[in-house]
Batch of 3 targets.
Target 1
Amino acid sequence: MIPYQFNYHRPKSLADAQALLKNSPDAKLLAGGQTLIATMKMRLANPSDLIDISGLKELNYIRVDANAVTIGAAVTHAEVAESAEVRRALPALAELAHLIGDPAVRHKGTIGGSIANNDPAADYPAAALALNATIKTTERSFKAEDFFTGMFSTALNDGEIVTEISFPLVERAAYTKFRNPASRYAMAGVFVAKGKDGVRVAVTGAGPGVFRQAEMEAALAKNFDPSAIASIKVDASELNSDIHGSAEYRANLVSVMAKRAVAAAIK
Amino acid sequence: MTAVSLTVNGNAVSADVEDRTLLVYFLREELRLTGTHIGCDTSQCGACVVHVNGKAVKSCSVFAVQADGAEVTTIEGLARDGKLHPVQEAFRENHGLQCGFCTPGMIMTAVDMIRRKPVLDRETIRAELEGNICRCTGYQNIVSSIEDAAKRMAAKDKAA
């Protein structure tokens, strides 16, 4: 499969990338390309220009301090999964990165791409929402809550570039997902976190976009144990139904994944 | 058209490519390195896996222009001085290929896997093969081949 024609650019700095983006309204940013290139091959996307930001030093770093793990937007899933520092400070995040796609995809795909694309079945949005992450761009900072606005949509303006994601450290966290065996995307994925922002439960893959499960959060705040949420029925009315599973099936999966995630978090 | 210069299997290569040329087409059609296969062409099957700067990637999902300045290794670049790479040797001896279509991708994935995880159990090998599909479903012997190759390479490293 061959995409439409486009012009490729490899800017040397973030400022150059911004200038290129400003001058060509139909341009797209290219980082790992593991979603974009497939979409272009299907001719579902037709950007005039691709601006390759994967090599920018300004976007390639992992910083861990006493409060947070902060990751530059162009860091790959493999780098997060293999980072000894992330494994130590926030093992659930390293594990999540390890569960994305397959090894070759993880060598290319980036955290910034995953966050900015906001695929309703992507993994990182669940971590960002459950950990109350801050998403920094070339223009401002967002709380994850305000960043993800729905299926494949975010609060990003045209020309605005995600530069880093900062995940506050928590006492306990875990991510569990039930993968579609062909695509490896989440049929349902649940990230649970317990920290100074309380207990937060974020669900991906099951609905039109990542969301928090308030009922489970309340129950787990009282008793952080799988038994606390065993009797909670997840409402299927706003969940996805497709050839891979009905909304009711996904609702049940959310319960099962949430219980497993809590069990993993307290282990 | 964009001029690219890269190293492929140790040889310097320069060419003018259309920006939309995928790396796999560049390797197969420009350089005639047809050992890298196109299976699904949707990044699922792994028949097109090559190494870019030492890391396994799916060459159907990378543009040739992205590899400008990079070092690329394909299945043709593994054997040295007429001697098969230990992973190739292990696939031959363990009957790790049936029709052979997925084999180049399986071997490139295996080499990358052993580089990252020199000690491998069968469960890890299966998890690491997530992105490679064998249409003959011959996984049993593929896993055995990789297990054997990892052991041989570890023994060789120890001896060296």
Target 2
Amino acid sequence: MRLSKPVVASLVVAGLVLGASLAVVAADAFQDRHMAMETVNDAAKPLFDMAKKAVPFDAAVVKANATTIADNLKSAATLFPAGSGGGDSRAKPEIWTDAAGFEKGMKDAHAAAVALQAVKDEAAFGPALSALGGSCKSCHDKYRLPKK
Amino acid sequence: MAAIAFVLAIAAVLFFWLTRPDPLPATAIPVREVDLRNGETLFRAGSCLACHRPPEGGPGAERGLPSGGRPFPTPVGTFYPQNLTPDAETGLGRWSEVEFVNAMKLGISPSGTHYFPAFPYASYRAMTMADLLDLRAYLMSLPAMKSASREADVPLVPLARRAVGLWKRIAFRRPPWSPEPGRTPSWTRGAYLVNAPGHCGECHTPKDRLMIEDPGRHLAGGPHPGGEGKVPSLRGLLARKKYADVADLVLALQNGETLGYEDLSSGGMAAIQENLATLPEADVRAIAEYLLSLE
């Protein structure tokens, strides 16, 4: 098949645009999920301080921060499109080679944050926070590279 | 031509002489009562299971037994850690005490070959004889699992193995860790756990081109042995505000990320932290005290 020069040129341009768009989507996804995870971390910190008794237990703060964590985990879960690893990202290839395991891990973490929202007293708070921390840990252990 | 052959022959003889394994004799082993509890503490302090656990579904995997065989990738090649359960054919069942000590202190197998230093005997050689015998007794008390060992995926294995003898000559010129005078018993205990059974320096101390730990940068962090990312420095943890005090680091080692210490589930550290969490609290405190003293 013979293609005219304009057709070839258009195909090349279309290819480049598509490639560049995918790269932008991947870069955006990395930035967005990084922000979401940082927000989770910021919201979790006061809760861990409570667990360590560095600050007094406050059910309202627990509910508010657990909600922030749950919301951000939910959006982060959608921000791992294929090809968005590498570069500054600490995402391990296992996120995509073991997509089912990763998806389950994110779901478990979200469920743990939702459970933490419902906590009313200090006795239930400790175990619920440990469960959330444990879900962060198991994913980080499997799917996160060391710091670069 | 004859001259070249002569030089090569001399070089070969010299190589075999320099690389010959030199194990301890059975008479080096004292007669004593073993302490299984202490052996288990050392098994946890060394996080033996982190490398010697079987692959998922492997022999004894569900019981957390160190039947080995899970691939251990390194830049040099892939290693398959040994079965540490007392199975006679595939594990340590037929190993005598002195054979175990030679493996741990000198990196020499019962058949008299060198182990690759991916097995961190360069750290374990600082362990006391009593601790090594307790650790062996603990391993021998575990249920026996059948899991044959597999040769390392390293180029030119027999020659490479032999050449480890040369590596040891250089690496072992530096004396093993030993107690410093004038330190508290707790600091000394912490330093021992970190540097001998804990073998923290294997990842946290940068290595030179010969894969020997650089004593000038002890526990100062470096490239991750897995090839990507970095291993953090364990020096200046207080000055860099990584931990507030000894109690803070104790909590970190005991709980890891379940209490928000997210750095402890990075680069394979989660498995190590889970082992350290099972140590007696005094030992965790000793480790924290020692680490926070490093400036």
Target 3
Amino acid sequence: MPKTPNEHRLELLQGTLDMLILRTLQWGPQHGHGIGQAIRTQSDDLLRVETGSLYPALHRLVKRGWLTAEWGVSEANQRARYYQLTPAGKAQLSRERDRWAQLVDAIGRIMNPAPAGRE
Amino acid sequence: MHPDDNDLDEEIRGHFALSMKERLERGEDPASARLAALKEFGNVTLTRDAMRGVWRHRWLEWAEALGRDLRFAVRALLRAKGLAVTVMVTLALGIGANAAIFSVVRGVLLRPLVNRDEDRLIYIRQSAPAIGAENMTFSVPEVKDFMSRATTVRAFGDFSTVDFTLIGLGGEPRTVKAGVVGGSFFEVMGLRPVLGRLLDPHDDGPDAAGAAVLTYRFWTTSLNGDATVIGRKIRLGARTATVVGVLEPSVPYPAETEIIANVVTSPHHLGATMVTSRTHRMTELFGRLAPAATLEAARAELTAVHAGMMREHPDAYSKTANVQLRVARLRDQIAAPARTILIVLLAAAGVVFVIACSNVANLILARSVRREGELAVRAALGAGTAALRRTLLAESLVLCGGGAILGVLLARPLLVGVASFAGRYSVRALEVTVDGTVLWVGAGLAIAAAVLLAYVPRLPSPHAPAGLGLASGSLRITPGTNRRLRIFATTQVAFSFVLLAGAGMLIATLAAMQTAKTGYGNMRQVIAFDVPPVATGVATADGLTFFREATRRVSQLPGVQDVTVGTAVPWRDAGLFPGGTGFAVEGYKPADGEEDPRARLRVVGSRFFTVLGVPVLAGREFTDDDGPGVEPVSIVSQSVAQRMFANGDALNRHMWWTDPYFGKPVPRRIVGVVADVDDESVVPQTVMTIYMPVRQVKYGGRLFVRAAGDPHALVPAVIRTIRSISADQPIERAATLEDVRAEVLSPERLNAFVFSGFAGIALLIAVVGVAGVLAFSVSARTREFGIRLAVGSEPRRLLARVLGEGTTMAVIGIAAGAAGGYVLARAAAHLVEHVQMPDALPTVAASAVLVIAAVLASLVPAARAARVDVLQALRAE
């Protein structure tokens, strides 16, 4: 199915979706739709998570033990699965955050090399 | 923890509800909100599969999907029964033939022998290729030299065969083939008894008591496994022996025997000639490698010992004979004669498999073209490439699985046939049974075929506009598909051509052998009997009287025209004195360093040539007066007269044997010249032959009776007559010369038969292939033909066009087959001996058969093309 091109939207970097999910859940339990909306609004609509990636990712994180899932009732008065961070998930988040910082720093050094002699 | 499908559905529903709520709150109308939510979500099925996939083991999920596809495939194939049956039968033929032949190859070439530590067992052979003696065997002094000098061989076992007249195990007196072995034989061979004991060093030497071991085959087939046989006394010719045991089932090599006895039972083995003459060779030699010795080391050492022996006794090893020593692992030695034929059979079966697969590929390709619409719909619904391949794989697995099951069922009767065929080359083939191998080979071949076939069809390309195929769902044949179909059909024709030409070659050879002039005029009327002299090979004075009495009485039987005595039944007793015997003639002096000429030595009775119908060209035959005490005489064949005497004038000149076996040379006057006959080779060659009279050489053993009517009707009367002279006299193997020749030719006949079978299967498959491709191409081009007819093309021309397409495929296939076959034969010539190029006749015949088959195969589709209904064809799309 051909995708409609959207100049403003950014493609998610490979491997960052898990980190974004974990980060979003730091504020408390949330269901899949809510997580998607949170990522979208917090990125000022620049990042939009495909539903086809989001739900499998959630299930993957549950399987790894970083999240737990419980049925609850959503704002739409419908049953929804609420995801919550586990202690292992919190540890994983801080690991990924560190890795991300390192990555940004490293890429930043290459893209914007510090001019010689400037301090 | 593990969510089930309902959970997944509910979670997705929950997402939709939230998404809808959000949109409705933004003020969208319900219909467009719903559409937008669906669009945003994307492919629900794929997402749910991905979510489920997180929780599944990848392979498990794949297998489950395959199971689903398999069920679907079975249902789909039930709707296309014709195709399914054709594919399965074709594959079954290919798989069955391969499984059967592979089982035999495994049983004959690869399976270890039952002997203890069989990989340490070696077989030693002395041969003289220059004089055509493939197996010279060894003499006792030679064996002793090896025993005393070799260090790489822990122990040697010796084995020689003799014929005994056996009396005392029930039934009539009869000749048995017996092995005579030294005390170390069974220990070296590493064989065990199933009953009693085997022979050991205590049974060795001239002073031991006679002891005999029965072979398993003889014990079970002739004695019904009677356990009370142990301890029974039997008469073996002149001596007696006690049955001490029964040998376990094992491969009889070098000769199949019924009993194996110790040396003391054979007076000949104790005689001075046997023990002291270095050239009196009749012993086969086996060895067990010393610990830590390798085959190569043993080969090197034994060759050195042999070279030393030849240096020390130059008189015993003729220079021109080029005596050589061969050392081989026993298992390889036993397998050697069958190797070539089995490899050829395996190749033929492989070719049949390729043909079968390419035919099946064709059918499946054609089917997949018909299914392109379906596949396009599935792709549009989100099936990935892997899923589509899996669907195709499931279908080909069902087809190939069915084919494999049929093939394995088919393999059982095929295996019996192939094993009895291969049994002529290796006794091991007879023990081959249908076992797990067949199943594994069948399954392996089926899976290989299935995977191959799943990758034959092209998948709908994700980039190609799917609209067309989706919309019409109709049959559409692309030039690429058409070309592929034709290539497969042409491949089948090419491979069939190779097999047909090969079969044609074998049939031509067989025909040449069957129609070859043998030189014997009375093949049908003369019936030969083995009347072996009791106990030993040498007739005594009593023996001569016996044969004189036998000929007198048999000649008086009603229906008997004539009787004579000989020592060898043509072809059946071939190989009596390999390499010929040296002789000299009056007035012919070999140049310095030249070897004596060699001739076949034959001993025949009076009127032998009249009885067998061999023309006497000059002089006379032997008569009853050519007996002991009168002038020694001989008869020579025409080739001797022509080569050894000026003007071929041999009559009344003298010849004598120079071989030391005859002792002091005795000049024999040549009293006759007879036409050349070849009583050894199947295709007659001119071989110098010299005959001596039975009554002077005292050597007989074969009775030839010429019948006025049906020779087989005389058999009971002749046997009664012989028994009335001597009740203990064996008389057996009655057969006319024509029977003997048919028997000798049967391996060739079987070769031709088996190959023709393969070629026939290949031809059948190729015909189905060509017909299938054309039928498909015609049905796919119905519209084209309709248009052609509508614009005025004559039906006749359409017919000719389709026929032409079929013939073109056949011609291209034949050309490719001829070229490929030529290259293949050249390559094979490096690997196996006796590779011949087929002559022009079989090649042309094979081409003709294929072209005719192709035309016949094209007829039905061609007729259909010519009969296309214009209106229907144009309305069809």
